[in-house]
């Protein structure tokens, strides 16, 4: 497999956003069934991309985008965040997510702590972060969101951390 993790360019931004939204939508609908709501609004992706220290990566296999991630790097504290990591719908379970994460760790070797979160219903994500990437669950957040955020499925979110050596 010819895998590469590259910085996202403007030409691929629309594909990146659409693929990420589809992956999150399908993940939610696999558990809760079809919904009219948008699980990952574009404004949430844009907010992440516009965060100070944000870097967006696209995962490419054989010249096709198969996933990606948005991380936020704090050079001062070296406590960094994984905002989003996705594998394109239809190409999951091939190790691409783990390849993305491993490459991110290699690209940011000065990181002291990585932090991310995922909805409680996302058993596949929880398994991925805990068992594959060696994160630890450090917090449960029961969301009370006035904006009607449905992406957590009403079950809240887990916060994960990975302390680097």
Order of helices and strands: EHHEEEHEHEE
Q: In the CATH hierarchy, what is the class?
A: Alpha Beta
**Biggest sheet layout:** 7 strands, mixed
What would you call the structural class?
A: alpha+beta
Estimate the helix proportion, in percent: 25-40%
Looking at the overall shape, the CATH architecture is: 3-Layer(aba) Sandwich
Oligomer: single chain
Polypeptide structure, described:
It is a single chain. The chain has 165 residues and is of the alpha+beta class. It has a single domain (3-163), classed as Aminopeptidase (3-Layer(aba) Sandwich), CATH 3.40.630. The chain is built from 4 helices and 7 strands. It has helices at 13-32, 42-49, 96-107, 123-132, and strands at residues 3-7, 54-61, 64-72, 79-87, 113-119, 136-141, 157-163. A hairpin with a 6-residue loop joins β3 and β4. The longest helix has 20 residues, at 13-32. The chain is globular, with a radius of gyration of 15 Å. It starts with a strand and ends with a strand.
